Structure formats: C-alpha cells, structure tokens
Amino acid sequence: MDWLHNPDEIYRRSFAIVRDEADLSIVPDDMTDIAIRLVHACGMPEIIPDLRWSDGAAQAARDAISSGAPVLCDVQMVAEGIMAACLPTKHQIYSMIRLPSVAAIAEEQSTTRSAAQVELWKPLLKGSVVAIGNAPTALFRLLEVIAEEPAQKPAIILGFPVGFVGAAESKDALHEIDHGVPYLTLLGRRGGSAMASAAVNAFAKKYEK
Prior knowledge:
single chain; alpha/beta; 6 strands
C-alpha cells in the first residue's frame, strides 16, 4: 500500500485541505487557527458556521494558559489528548471522574458522575481552563455552579459535549445565558473529547518550542 509516513507532511497536508475546504472567511483572525484545529480534530469542514465564541475568548484562553492555570476535563480522554509538553508551564491537568468519591456524590445527588465531579472542581475553578468533551451534564452543572458562586468563575469554558440527549441544549445554554465567562463551543449534537483537547492545544500552540 502507498501511504504517507512523515508526520510533519501529514499535518501540513491536513491543514492545507482544511484551509481549502472550510469557509474561514466568517472566522476572525484570532480564532482562525483554533477553527482549523477543530475541523482537523473531527474531519468536518462544515462545522465552521456552527462554532460560537464570546468576544475575547481567544485572549482569555491564552492568558489563562500562559499563567499556568489548571485545566479541568470532564473525562480522561480529554486530559490524555492535551499536549502537556506544548504548554508554557507545568500545568495541572485534572479529570476527576474516576475518583471513588465521585460515585458517592453522584448517588447522593441523584445525578451523573460527570456532573458530580464538578463539586470537586470548585476549589480549582476560579481562573481555570475548563474543557468538556463528552458530558452535557457536566456543562449544565458547571453553569449552575457559576450562577451559585459567581466569584469562582473559570477563565474560559471550552464546551464540546456530544450526543443526542442534552448536548445541544447544554451548548445553547452556554451560548445564550449571561454567565459572564468567555467560551468556545460548537452548537448542535456534534462535539467530542478530541475537539475539546484540540481546543486546548490550539490555544497553547503559540507556546510550542
């Protein structure tokens, strides 16, 4: 079989194809690289019109990453997809869903483990980077916590929950509610861990060595 082996060439061609096939004319300059990497992560140039972000989201994300803010992930897959070596400082990347205490909280609150772990995020939440790539319930609960404790706002929410129940609705809430937190999301059912990780990596790209 004739296939491309060189990883640098694979990336070069991939990003060239994205630029050729995606309508990036509707994306501002400070979000272009991020949009390209999100398309690359899912293989769908057609997502561009459904991307939503708040004013200043790119700068907020880059400032948080440059300051070494913790990265809070809803699932381990998101955490594993983040290229820690490209972050400018030794960031703490957390996924707490596997902790034994999370199951107990979920049972006590009659909710999912994804939503329950948000309780454990609270001490780290202020100024953090939150990357959600799987669970709508985590995003819904995060928005509730921000409403309950406005002083504990994260620096940026990267909201990419995926699925048929609650995914679109949770991202609509992120986009429409006046919660005062910068955000980036993809409306509708599409999303996933790879996209949440790609968003973190994209904002860290300027710090690559």
